[in-house]
Amino acid sequence: MTSDAPTTPDEPGTGAGTDRDGDRGISRKTLLRAAVAAGAAVPLLATGGIALARDAARSTPDRSLPPTPFCDDGDDPTPDQMEGPYFKPNSPLRTDLVTPGTAGTRLTVSGYVFGRNCVPLPGVLLDFWQADNAGAYDMAGYTFRGHQFTDAAGAFTLRTIVPGLYPGRTRHIHVKAQAPGEPVLTTQLYFPGEPRNSTDTLFDPALLMNVRAVGGGKEGTFDFVLNVDGGPGPDPTDPPTEPPGGTWAAGRSYSAGDRVTYGGGTYRCLQAHTSMTGWEPPHVPALWRQES
């Protein structure tokens, strides 16, 4: 791990969502998130607003969870934000970033990934990275870094800690999200009620998580909406009927720099991962780069 907290904040960039409300419209959810950021008391709502349907169900013990996640067709795609200076490729495949003895308040973040037409997206690549409890990023190894894929219902769960603060920024978690064969969304998730939300120039209330205290830790929820259409199409878990020839194969462990052939092309691995059907090299530019 780095021994000192970063001394400079992430630099503002054109991908930040702080000045884009005029372009995408200010939705009811955005306004409610802004109220939460300011510390206002906003009730959990079962329909629309900042809260997710499963949050309202959890607050009422005698109610069962809904069989499907709630989604509002009026939700805008999740805004993008800058990558910042601390991203590293080749993060390990894992959903739990906490190890025995890890300092900090335990945090579980869960949610769903939807397409813009409100269809949950399975097999979405989510790559998370964040600062440790002291506000430092591990640039030598992969502490508090990991990637995962949404399940068949489009759901994900991340176990980590509440990140520490460092100069110039409020608390945040970085993430890259990519549906099969689609562009990569790079963004950040924020915490409600943080004093620095009002002074961080990158902060966007549309990226606030719902966060509640649970025992000695915290639980956060956030649903991503990617700017893609979900719906009928190849299931990432269904094997193709006539797989193209080549050396790439599902179920193998690939390292950065490995080269494979697939469908007549040659590809170089950009990030270590275990391959899976539906994530063939042409479909995942975040993992493979075509060379010929």
TrEMBL record:
Q: Which UniProt keywords apply?
A: Dioxygenase, Hydrolase, Membrane, Oxidoreductase, Transmembrane, Transmembrane helix
State the similarity comment. Belongs to the intradiol ring-cleavage dioxygenase family.
Q: Where is this region: Disordered?
A: 1-26, 57-91, 229-253
Domain (Chitin-binding type-3) spans: 245-291
The organism encoding this protein is Streptomyces lancefieldiae
GO molecular function terms attached to this record? dioxygenase activity
Record's keyword annotation contains Membrane? yes
Q: Which domain of life is it from?
A: Bacteria
CDD domains recorded: ChiA1_BD, intradiol_dioxygenase
Query: Which protein is depicted?
Result: Dioxygenase
Kindly list the residue ranges recorded as spanning the membrane. Answer: 30-53
Q: Name one Pfam family in it.
A: Dioxygenase_C
Q: Which InterPro entries is this protein grouped with?
A: CBM5/12, CBM_sf_5/12, Intradiol_dOase_C, Intradiol_dOase_core, Intradiol_RC_Dioxygenase, TAT_signal
* Record field: compositional bias (Pro residues): 233-243
